[in-house]
Amino acid sequence: MARIPSPEQILLQVHLSLGLDRPESKHISQFTAMGFPLARHRKFMKELTNDIFTALEMDEQARSDACRNMDEWFSFDSALATHTWTHNASQQQVLWHMLAYSYVPGLARRLAFWSLAGAERELPFDAGMPGGRFWFLPDWDQSAGTVRLPVAFVLEWLVDLLGEQSLEHVADGLQREHAERKNMNALRTLQGWRLEGRLPQSAKMIDELFHDEADLDFQSSFHLHESMPEEEQFTTALGFVQLRGLGPEMLADEIPLPASLVQTIMEGKGTPEENRRFVETLAVRYAAPSMRTVRQRLRVARMTQDAYQRLLKLLCGPGANPRSSDPSHNRLLPLLALFHTVYNLTIQSVMHGGTYDDQDRWFESKFTPWDRCDLLLSIMPSAKGMGHQLLGERLTRRFMTLRHDAALPDLVPLAGQDGHSGVIEERVRMLESEADEDARIAALVRAVSGSSAWQALQAEASYLVVSQLARTDGLSPEVRAMAFSRLRELAETPAQEAGTFVIELAGLIDSPGPARPQDVQEQTEALLDGIQKSEGLETWKGPFLRFRARHRLMQNDFEGAAQDFRSALEACLDRNFGPLHGQIAREGFATDIAVRGFDPKIQECYYRHLVLSVRGVQDLASFEDTAVECEEFFWQELYRPYHGVEARRGQSAEELKDLFARSAGLIHEADIDELRAWLLGHVKRLRLARLKDARRDSLLLSWMKQLHHFEQLSRMPVFRAALRPRKQLPSVVVRQAIRILVRLWPEQAKLCDFKGQTPLMIAADSGDEELTGLLAAISDVDAQDHIGRTALHAAVAGGSGGCIRIVLDLNPNVDRVTRDEGQTVLHTAVRFGNLEAVTLIADAFPCRAVSANHAGMTPLDLARDLLNNYEEWKRFMRGHNREIGSRERFKDIISLLETSVA
């Protein structure tokens, strides 16, 4: 069992490699197995990310850059996972392919972009480190036959700046004035890190050793005195270089200038600008570092060295030597070479094009055709938007043919190494084989459409080719049956045998009702039984459980189906089943709603899996809206009982919905007296009842939503003309009914729907002063909906000053803010450019004018920002069917708020 590591698992591994305090094992297992509620899951992920950023002492700009890069990286890998089946590949094999095909090239390219962006801001992330080497990675010197580890590299950089001081002297400087630290032998610790390749035990140990008060004398550092004339600065720089014995070739590895230019400058032939650049780069490279910088470098080195050593043990066995320079024993060395290539070419591309498109074309031109369409597909600019899908298909084919116990294949050729050409030849052979299979699939599809389908199938000996034909839409039942028969003949392994059953099941269960054979139920049971008895069951456990759930649904066993869907989701945490993961989550969510109605605590797990399956592919609607969509999907598409099985009605269509429908009929007839009597006759059933469908409406909520619909219709002349003479408008009757209902059962004002919306919120958001006044006194004015909005937020959004005054008269708790953005009601009023609302709220609660939202913006900050981006904000709000105030209104709001906070 193996799957592509999730973003959650990757983040935990980074956290671990940094040497940070490990979260409780219970939390880790819940986090990676999607066991947390979504809000807790996001909070835990944010906590891990903040721990990492804090440990690396990253500033706000670096954090922002890192978050953007992580989002892009995680989105790509999540999208890749939705297009990949891992089949029987081992976890080692899956990880090995992901490292070569995605993680290493993707990380190299993103890190190069980050470095370029930092250089543009004159804040390179590795400022002060040797410019020609990757100090944060193991350094493989092929000519010397050595591998130097990152922690030792950083310490050598540090010792180089300290000059000729002994390591004992340095250790003394780290411990002086800190008697409490003397129980840690600084000298022995440094020697172990530098000479023996040991890791710092934790991030805390690095903090303890390189504390801010450490007394270190960086004798070999270079300090640029900016007050000096430029010529004197240059002379001082040359003297420093000569004193250190640094020649042009050596300096070219230390500063970002070519050796030929350094030679020219040192000979006194450089231009003033070249001399200035030489002095500046020298001052950055040989600057005396702060202890913060030293800690940061060591933590990065610890993180990469720990990850390198753990990966090596996982891929090559526990006895693998991290200092081995033999690629046949150290399988990570080719990946280091791959990283160097991608990173360096990305940096160089900037010099070969005036636009990003030009740079991308140059970058892509540096790779061979087989690299562009295989190993480096994930980073090829020409594949942007399709890379995850194309790579997913390629990896699926790889994993389909791998035995669980097969050795890791060579994927990255190394020039000058034994087997270099063999690696390339094998990859080219596999690409040609896949192209040949694709051509044969297309030819077979054409051949079976004629009269020689049987002969064409008998002539094809590839299980994969025939399996793709069997999945093709539009085949006649006869041809499809022949394809299944041929598949059974070609199946050589238990996994292929079980896969044949799965493909046949898909053809039966997913086919339209009229196309189903009469004995579909018996055939389905036989196929399910065949899979269950097959040794290949584990490979196809997810699809098997999904189809068994569908089979149970078609026999009205809703409870059994819901249980199978949940088990199928668990199987998706063991293997990647491509897009099937999202389908299982959706079908399971829909079925669970049909079984129990809307139950957020139990059903949120399905939504979490939907989020996981679409991350990086598309945006998913809110949990509540997805629940409604899933319920409609269940009754309209998913639930198709077998012939002879009486169709069930959903819980939302049972007696309670019939009663709601009866009330709607009485309203339609405008028989108010009969409606009142009818209500009194159904007190026990309706007083505190809510529909058990996804929306969870009470009778009052149902009528409130009907009222909004009818009032929209009543504005249409065609609708008014269609009414019989003297017949009251439906909206007028609904208002009468609502007043009667509220007088009889005021408790209904406090019942909310599936989004946490109360009747008062709906009335206030509609700007309905009459119903807002009717409901306000009997409602929970501080109730919050699913994203934290209150009735006052709703009144502000509705834009009615009257509604706002009514709610304000109830003295609402204005400390209630939205959960997603932390918006106070004053923030909301500013967003709409509603000067009247801003005035009313600022006058009633002046202290709210200085409250910041989750983005750290006060209402005044927000008003200024929206005015600066007025047209863009206006388009955004119109896209959500909302109008905002004019530019002048926003200017007036800013003036008012400036006065309030003065």
Task: Report on the architecture of this protein.
- α7 (167-175) packs across α8, α23 packs antiparallel against α24 and α25 runs antiparallel to α26 (558-571).
- The two termini are 64 Å apart.
- It is flat, with a radius of gyration of 34 Å.
- Strands 1-2 form a two-stranded antiparallel sheet.
- The protein is built from 44 helices and two strands.
- The chain is 61% helix and 1% strand.
- Residues 177-182 and 718-726 have low confidence and may be disordered.
- The longest helix has 30 residues, at 91-120.
- β1 (139-141) and β2 form a beta hairpin.
- Among the domains are: 222-287; 649-754; 790-902, Serine Threonine Protein Phosphatase 5, Tetratricopeptide repeat (Alpha Horseshoe).
- It has 902 residues and is mostly helical.
Give a brief outline of the structure.
This protein has 902 residues and is an all-alpha fold. It contains 44 helices and two strands.
